[in-house]
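User: Here's a protein and a ligand (pterin-6-yl-methyl-monophosphate). What would the complex look like?
Assistant: Let me lay out the input and then the predicted complex.
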Amino acid sequence: MNTLRGFVDGLPEWDRCAVMGVVNVTPDSFSDGGQWFDPELAVKHGMDLVASGADIVDVGGESTRPGAARVSEAEELRRVIPVVRELAASGVLVSVDTMRAAVAEQAVMAGARLVNDVSGGGADPAMIPVVAAAGVPFVVMHWRGQSIDMNNRAVYGDVVAEVVAELREGCERAVAGGIDPARIIVDPGLGFAKNAEHDLALMAHLGRLRELGRPLLVAASRKRFLGRVLAGTAGDPPPPARERDAATAAVSAIAAREGAWAVRVHEVHASADAVRVSRAIEGAARTEGAA
Ligand code: PMM
């Protein structure tokens, strides 16, 4: 095992960076909104992601794109729970992407084994106690408030130091609320209250996030900073989100090489290959070191 990567109590231990495929059961997510809104299509898509090499399937029912308004709890439950239940019943390792304790709780009852909360427990005070009682792993993502106005909070003196410090506080809150530290995963929250320069700085210093001593999830897939990079300097418009998949796979290779525990991606195939190549290089480096 790459000792940098760490391991999460309650989940399998992969010998490489894991791949989390995304199923957004939403009409309005920024890169794939509407595509998997029908529950049957969402389940089929989750199974396809596993066939393409996903280790985990992350099911979400609420868009967090910049400016997004919230959906009601009833609607989120209606979107997410049947998809979680069906995928889990088919043997898929399901994660639920939600900021609501009630959705997390019901999703765990329906078979989800990981709670991915982009607010790290900040949006719903009941979240941490619910996750603690359920005894499932929990993603603490760096978050500074709801998507509707998060871009106003993209203000940092030293983005890497502040994200590390705020994530540390998030982990401490989770542990104080009863979550086992061995079940916490940290995530820099690329694109959440961050501009392209902030995201790139965080990617350049992933090692600093490992100071937190917890496995690291990197979710760069199709995000705006990739569009900004690909737009070039000639003022070309950034490509639409779906055309950022090759760039996403490049980030997956880098994240894996930097010791990330998992990458969260929409298009799984290329990232599944990328993490395997990274693993092979890691193995060769070890053999060479031993020789
Ligand atoms: N980003 C989105 C949704 N969920 N979860 C984690 N842990 N980290 C992220 O950066 C993250 C997330 C953005 O929405 P998308 O599903 O449309 O990519």
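Summary: The chain has a mean pLDDT of 93.
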